[in-house]
Amino acid sequence: xxxxxHEAMHRIFQEDPGIFTRTFRxxxxxxxDTVAVSVxxxxxxxxxxxxxxxxxxxxxxxxxxxxxxxxxxxxxxxxPAKPSSWTYYLAHLNAKYGIxxxxxxxxxxxxxxxxxxxxxxxxxxxxxxxxxxxxxxxxHNVPAVTDPSVAARDLPLATFSAxxxxxxxxxxxxxxxxxxxxxxxxxxxxxxxxxxxxLGLGTTPAAQxxxxxxxxxxxxxRSETSQxxxxxxxxxxxxxxxxxVLEQRGITVTDSVRARINGCADADTLAxxxxxxxxxxxAEELFVDA
Length: 290
What we know:
13 helices, 290 residues
């Protein structure tokens, strides 16, 4: 089952698609400037009964007039079945949209990242018919943002740094820098990136460090919704937060959707729905894998 950490690791690209270009430029890969982005359906299922679904799919319009598709996958561990899915995604997207796709794989540990970065060859070794090369982001190449002033200048990148480095020794310094940076922005922005960070850290030890940091000074985080979100283990508060996020974004919440959200008592499920509520176009998208 997809967890909330998995959701946050790719949803941040929907909050700020430009993070892709900025991050890879630090690695010497000069993707063109982004001028517009649109969210596309992640369902790549055809007539066969096998379901294939990406985590996030964006169409990126660039300053040089060459659009591309940004397909984002979150990968928490090595999975022998994934390489074949990834090659399918790339071929299917190119055939469906007629636009060059780029596959980005986001990882939280270096062994998984190194595994995911290996070229995928389809065909006999004497003559591979297809080769896929995922672009991998993880603790091995995402900058560790430990300077509060740097974090304040680019909150999405600082948040992404915190999530991808959540399992390494740099985590406390990164989280302290991000916590300080969040105090420099408005409540709504702080709420989005604060919650994305907590969701992205999942059950790592760094998650408790983040909760402790958020408990030190909450004067910048006064909204009723954020108070409920910080209340650990209170499913009722989290359910109401999911509804409020949808309504504040102008998403229609029907009585049946509201009843389903309010009737859920599982904290992990509610956290996953909350992450999706930040970018969903329809309330029903919260339940896509339920």
